[in-house]
Write a structure and sequence with these properties.
four-stranded mixed beta sheet, 60s Ribosomal Protein L30, Chain: A, alpha+beta, 4 strands
Length: 128
């Protein structure tokens, strides 16, 4: 069974958190928490991590105005920040408390005219 969620915001990477962030939050941590709340609001009824067969995250980013031929760039890979490993960590951390059972993850970043993030979760059928 495959579930697909489309979230109308750009993907961000999980920031490195320190002990100090519990009482004096840096702007990157505040932005991450706001992003996480939006993702959780859009992703309802996700299967438990031990049932997940594959996780696919497709991130679409709008090219900056400085890129002259925006339409030519669209569809090509985005090779700048955020890093794909940080995006994967951010998505898994906000959807599951214990995500060590997930063994197949793919993150793809591309330039696009519309900014969004698509999460596909392929899961095994429940044992019920």
């Amino acid at each position: 069974m495959t579930q697909t969620f489309v979230i109308p915001i750009a993907a961000i990477g999980a920031p490195r958190m320190t002990r100090r962030d519990t009482w004096k939050k840096r702007p990157c941590v505040v932005a991450y928490h706001q992003w996480r709340d939006i993702v959780r609001a859009h992703c309802k009824d996700v299967p438990s991590a031990d049932r997940v067969e594959a996780l696919r995250v497709y991130c679409r980013f709008v090219p900056p105005g400085s890129m002259r031929r925006r339409k030519v760039v669209c569809g090509s890979l985005k090779r700048t920040k955020p890093d794909v490993d940080n995006i994967a960590k951010a998505v898994m951390d906000c959807l599951w408390e214990q995500d060590q059972a997930i063994a197949d993850v793919r993150v793809r970043k591309v330039w696009s005219l519309d900014e969004n993030m698509q999460i596909e979760i392929e899961s095994a059928p429940s044992a019920e």
